[in-house]
Amino acid sequence: MVNMQSKNSDPKANDPAPGPADPAKGGADAPAQGSGGDGARTVQDVIAALQAEGADFKDKWLRAHAEIENVRKRAEREKEDIAKYAIAKLAGDIVAVGDNFQRAIAAVPAGAVEEDPALKSFIDGVTMIERELLNALERYGIRRMEPMGAPFNPHLHQAVMEIPRADVAAGTIVQVFQPGYAIEERVLRPAMVGIAKGGPKLPSAPEDDAVPGSPPANENPTS
Predict the structure, then answer these.
(1) Of 148, 146, 181, nearest to 163 (Cα)?
(2) Rounded to an integer, what distance in angstroms lies between the CA atom of residue 176 and that of residue 190?
(3) How many C-beta atoms lie closer than 10 Å to residue 103's C-beta?
């Protein structure tokens, strides 16, 4: 009797045997949280998201690179324009000196030059200086435009009067009061001209002739 009581009084002998872990209580055999189900993010989803983000960064980089290239090209064009046209103001003053040479030559009657050797030598000297001036200007991209006999072009010429002429087409330049000048592709100073009116209609000029600073086909002699 004593032995049986001692066995029953042992607390360890009365504990129930351990059973399988209850999943509801978070035991060892419970499924991992987030390892399955519709809300789980798979490896493919992560890769797709990274690829989309990479494509977005690439697009932004290409746009930024294109913008930088445009800025560089624009800066290069501005630099070239500065190099070409920086002397435009100075050139405008210099060509006025050429006008004075022309006026001095035109003021002397042709007969007087033939009769006076000293006057002829003077005019020859002025003509030579004028030619040297024009050559110097051309070395810097500045050229004189002599539009006598050419069709009037508002981009290159400034009409100051109309002259009745039935023997030439209307709109033809028949008198040049002041020659024009161009610097590279730009008009430095338009020519001041008189144009014919009353003659036949002038044939339409090609579109290229209306471009400012185009090489003047306006040096043709009067027909």
Answers:
(1) 148
(2) 11
(3) 10
AA identity, residue 194: G
Taking the C-alpha atoms of residue 146 and residue 134, their distance in angstroms, rounded to an integer, is 13
Q: Which residue do the tokens 């007087």 mark? A: 112
**DSSP strand E in 96-215: where?**
142-145, 157-164, 173-178, 180-183, 186-189, 191-197
Which helix H or strand E contains 148, and what residues bound it?
Answer: none
**Cα–Cα distance between 146 and 190 in angstroms, integer?**
10
Query: E strands of the chain, at which residues?
Result: 142-145, 157-164, 173-178, 180-183, 186-189, 191-197
pLDDT number for residue 34: 45
Q: What is the pLDDT of residues 125-158, one digit of tens each?
A: 999 999 999 999 999 889 999 899 999 999 999 9
Q: Work out whether strand 173-178 and strand 191-197 pair parallel, antiparallel, or are unpaired.
A: antiparallel
